């Protein structure tokens, strides 16, 4: 992705207009492939198509993330790379390392349209491994990213993507180990409580001007 | 985790006779315009009762007096010290499980009835067990449970009769959802914007990874704010509406809401219709029995029941997950491609570091698209890890088939 290009959006742009954006050939190719295999009831198919289109339009205009693969056969499954700093601790005795991007897997199940879902059930950090983050679970359970105690019924996919960005950058973080909602790694929660000066990892907004690198000062251990 | 049958049967299993006990038949009137076999119709009821509080307990009482064939009660809570103020229980019942108390009472009232109790949540009852009931009585004020009961019962084509009260206005409601076809309403069809918001607010999840829900105090621990008499009366109306349906007495009561107000002693009966914007899947599963035990059938054989000719259908095999890939802590991936009952179960060891591998949630499916299972379609389910499958759903567009084992209930006529 071209990260040096300034982002230009109309002044009155809002996310409800994502469905009106024309997809470029690459994003349209991904969309047509996924839509051609889209299964389920008519209502669910329609919802999946709309969500998939929104996600691709958001990827196109923001360049914040790149969708590698979209699967609409049953659940909505996105494999994507997000340009976001990710705190890691591959060596427990070593320094904190900030990786520049996150490879993510996202699964939005049909049940999510009707029932509130657990905040940790939708997004998984595939890479890097050894994330050092209060709200990311262990790799044994797929490095689940907890986005809060609950995701309300019918939440939009684009909102989940924003939540992921804010969670990974520690713009929103829950590290109170006495409140079970959200803390997936107690040791990391304790560490970040003692290192709050490093939070957030970047103040750049999701749709902000693109930068080649995240804030390096906060990334150094 | 695979859902086991969570019910406990009260006293020793007995061979439930469908014959009408003579004493019960002697007490039954000859209903005007009613059927000859009224007693038989009562005695063949297989009822699931969700919630055994001030309304549910009354319903359980009378179902037992009707000598129903089977009564199963689900409720996660115990009686509190103030429960005797609104429930028909003695003080000695305080602290006891509501479900077990109701089940025990039913068994004492009707020894011929097979009675089951489950202290737990409705969500934990497996689909194959739910398919055995022919009516669900819903007596809970928990919106999430209402939603879950509505979705499952509609899918299984089981009618739901719901009783609820509004204490301050001395009002009560009986909703009768027929669930006979996809075009019929479900409980969620009538949810208001405020109710959806309340549902979202009152549901939170524990981060232990189990998916267990915790409810905020205002919803999960809501106390009955009503006179016991109001609750009892609504329970009786629930039963009368059900009796009218069971015996085909008078005008049909399916898909209606009956409202009673004790201030005016007026009742209002209104039709219920499907909300076209209801987010729930309005698909009633066709039922079929597999030619052999499900574990011996191949996916190809089972999908023939679904008349699926193209590739956009999916299968759901009991409560298991189809795991495509497992991953090790070191980052190594390995192809699995089989059904797994327990998501956290070790699926072998890593070739590189010998650490245990677990199925990765991003590469695991509850509803499995056919293209994901393509190379294994001609293998028996037992060879794909589903040796204890009790039910399978084949979905295609707006059509879906529930396949059960031989020992499960036969297709509804």
| Percentage of residues in DSSP E strands of chain B | 15-25%
CATH architecture of the largest domain in chain B: 3-Layer(aba) Sandwich
The whole-angstrom Rg of chain B is 23 Å
Q: What is the radius of gyration of chain A?
A: 17 Å
Counting helices, strands and paired strands, the structural category of chain A is alpha+beta
- The tally of strands of chain B reads 21
Distance between the termini of chain A: 28 Å
> What is the domain tally of chain B?
2
Outline the secondary-structure elements.
The complex is a heterodimer of chains A (221) and B (413).
Chain A: H1 25-36, H2 42-62, E1 65-71, E2 76-88, E3 97-108, H3 111-114, E4 123-127, E5 144-145, H4 157-168, H5 186-193, H6 216-219
Antiparallel strand pairs in A: 1-2, 2-3, 3-4, 4-5
Helix pairs in contact in A: 1-2
Chain B: E1 8-9, H1 22-27, H2 38-43, E2 46-50, H3 56-65, E3 70-74, H4 98-109, E4 114-118, H5 127-130, E5 135-138, H6 143-156, E6 160-166, E7 171-177, H7 193-202, E8 203-205, E9 213-215, H8 217-220, H9 228-246, E10 256-261, E11 266-271, E12 286-289, H10 299-303, E13 313-317, E14 321-327, E15 333-340, E16 346-349, E17 356-359, E18 364-365, E19 368-369, H11 370-373, E20 391-396, E21 399-404
Parallel strand pairs in B: 2-3, 2-5, 3-4, 5-6, 12-21
Antiparallel strand pairs in B: 1-4, 6-7, 7-10, 8-9, 10-11, 13-19, 13-20, 14-15, 14-17, 14-18, 16-17, 20-21
Helix pairs in contact in B: 3-4, 3-9
Structure explained in plain terms:
- The complex is a heterodimer of chains A (221) and B (413).
- The longest helix of chain A has 21 residues.
- By secondary structure, chain A is an alpha+beta fold.
- Chain A has a domain of 147 residues.
- In chain A, strand 1 and strand 2 form a beta hairpin.
- Chain B has two domains: 264 residues, Rossmann fold; 119 residues, no CATH class.
- Chain B is 23% helix and 24% strand.
- Chain B is built from eleven helices and 21 strands.
- In chain B, helix 3 runs parallel beside helix 4 and helix 3 crosses helix 9.
- Chain B is globular and about 75 Å long.
- Chain B starts with 7 loop residues before the first strand and ends in a 9-residue tail after the last strand.
- About 1% of the residues of chain B have low confidence.
């Amino acid at each position: 992705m071209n990260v040096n290009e300034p982002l230009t959006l109309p002044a009155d742009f809002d996310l409800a207009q994502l469905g009106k954006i024309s997809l470029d050939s690459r994003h349209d190719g991904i969309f047509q492939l996924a839509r051609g295999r889209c299964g389920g009831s008519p209502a669910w198919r329609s919802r999946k198509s709309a969500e998939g289109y929104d996600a691709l339009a958001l990827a196109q205009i923001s360049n914040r993330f790149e969708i590698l693969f979209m699967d609409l056969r049953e659940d909505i499954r996105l494999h994507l790379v997000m340009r976001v700093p990710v705190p890691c601790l591959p060596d427990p005795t070593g320094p904190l390392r900030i990786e520049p991007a996150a490879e993510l897997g996202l699964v939005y199940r049909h049940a999510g349209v009707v029932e509130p879902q657990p905040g940790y059930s939708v997004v998984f950090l595939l890479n890097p491994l050894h994330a050092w983050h209060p709200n990311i679970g262990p790799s044994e359970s797929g490095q689940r990213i907890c986005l809060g105690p609950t995701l309300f019924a019918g939440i939009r996919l684009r909102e989940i993507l924003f939540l992921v960005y804010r969670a990974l950058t520690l713009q929103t973080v829950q590290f109170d180990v006495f409140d079970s909602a959200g803390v997936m790694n107690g040791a990391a929660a304790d560490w970040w409580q003692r290192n709050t000066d490093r939070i957030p990892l970047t103040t750049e907004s999701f749709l902000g001007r693109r930068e080649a690198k995240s804030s390096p000062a906060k990334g150094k251990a | 985790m695979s859902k086991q049958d969570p019910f406990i049967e009260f006293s020793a299993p007995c061979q439930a006779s469908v014959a009408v006990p003579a004493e019960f038949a002697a007490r039954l009137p000859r209903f005007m315009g009613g059927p000859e076999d009224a007693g038989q119709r009562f005695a063949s009821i297989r009822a699931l009762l969700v919630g055994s509080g001030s309304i549910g307990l009354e319903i359980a009482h009378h179902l037992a007096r009707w000598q129903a064939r089977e009564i199963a009660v689900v409720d996660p809570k115990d009686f509190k010290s103030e429960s005797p103020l609104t429930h028909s229980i003695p003080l000695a019942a305080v602290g006891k499980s509501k479900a077990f108390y109701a089940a025990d009472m039913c068994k004492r009232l009707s020894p011929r009835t097979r009675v089951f109790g489950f202290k737990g949540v409705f969500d934990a009852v497996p689909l194959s067990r739910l398919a055995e009931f022919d009516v669900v009585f819903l007596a809970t004020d928990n919106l999430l449970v209402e939603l879950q009961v509505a979705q499952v019962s509609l899918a299984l084509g089981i009618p739901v009769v719901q009783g609820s009260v509004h204490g301050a206005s001395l009002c009560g409601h009986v909703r009768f959802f027929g669930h006979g076809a996809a075009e019929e309403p479900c409980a969620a069809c009538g949810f208001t914007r405020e109710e959806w918001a309340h549902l979202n607010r009152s549901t939170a999840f524990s981060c232990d990874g189990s998916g267990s829900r915790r409810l905020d105090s205002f919803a999960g621990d809501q106390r009955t704010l009503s006179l016991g008499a109001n609750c009892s009366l609504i329970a009786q109306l629930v039963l009368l509406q059900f009796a009218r349906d069971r015996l085909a007495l008078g005008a049909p009561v399916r898909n209606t809401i009956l409202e009673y107000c004790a201030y005016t002693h007026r009742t209002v009966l209104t039709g219920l219709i499907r909300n076209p914007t209801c987010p729930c899947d309005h698909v009633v599963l066709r039922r079929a029995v597999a030619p052999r035990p499900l574990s011996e059938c191949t996916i190809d054989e089972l999908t023939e029941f679904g008349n699926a000719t193209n590739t956009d259908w999916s299968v759901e095999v009991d409560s298991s997950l189809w795991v495509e890939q497992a991953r090790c802590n070191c980052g190594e991936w390995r192809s699995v491609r089989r059904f797994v009952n327990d998501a956290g179960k070790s699926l072998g060891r890593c070739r590189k570091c010998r650490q245990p591998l677990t199925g990765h949630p991003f590469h695991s499916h509850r509803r499995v698209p056919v293209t994901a299972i393509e190379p294994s379609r001609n293998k028996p389910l037992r060879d794909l890890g589903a040796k204890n499958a009790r039910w399978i759903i084949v979905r295609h567009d707006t059509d879906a088939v529930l396949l059960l084992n031989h020992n499960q209930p036969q297709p509804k006529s």
